[in-house]
Amino acid sequence: MNCENITITDASAADLRDVLDLLTLVQLPHDGVAENVSAFLVARDESSRLIAAIGLERHGTTALLRSAAVAPSYQGCGIGSRLTENLLAQATKDGVERVVLLTSTASEFFARRFGFCETSRTTFEKDLAGSSEWNLPRCSSAVCMSLDLSK
User: Fold this and answer.
1) What is the number of H-type helices and E-type strands within the chain?
2) pLDDT per residue rounded down to tens, the chain (151 residues)
3) 3-class secondary structure, 44
4) Is-contact 66 23, C-beta < 8 A?
5) Rounded to an integer, what distance in angstroms lies between the CA atom of residue 34 and that of residue 14?
6) Residues 6+ apart with CB under 8 A from 84
7) What's 37's DSSP letter?
8) What is the Cα–Cα distance from 76 to 57, expressed in whole angstroms?
């Protein structure tokens, strides 16, 4: 594994299969990815292999950060942090006021690195009711976290 020469770009429809394969590898849901792939960022290694992805599912001024995934052999390289930083910067530029995420494994990472705070799901039920990921039974027990970008 070489953590150098990693490129981050906007995802395209051509990236969908690779993104879904990565999500399968790290056991994250596919629901809603195809519909939102244009709002994803992807990271590729020096051989152009997709090694990480992250998405934003926008619902008005609230957005669901989703599908944050890094191939196991590249975890610990800071790629997840770089993707998240880029995604949050783009969200801010695009007028997103708050970002919400659901996680069962990375709450400490998002809190420590980016300032996400644990919050009640009911706070965002109305805003995110149209999200297929938000409504998945497997996500109902995940920790809900949010970050206010409007400050």
Assistant:
1) 4, 7
2) 677 789 999 999 999 999 999 999 999 989 999 999 999 999 999 999 999 999 999 999 999 999 999 999 999 999 999 999 999 999 999 999 999 999 988 899 999 999 999 999 999 999 998 888 888 877 777 899 999 998 7
3) strand
4) no
5) 11
6) 54, 65, 68, 110, 113, 114
7) G
8) 25
Kindly give the pairing relationship between strand 62-70 and strand 98-103. Answer: parallel
Nearest CA among 55, 34, 61 for reference residue 102: 55
Amino acid symbol at 89:
A
User: Both tokens of residue 75?
Assistant: 């975890």
Answer yes or no: pTM beyond 0.85. yes
- Separation in Å, CA 101 to CA 27, 66, 137: 16, 6, 15
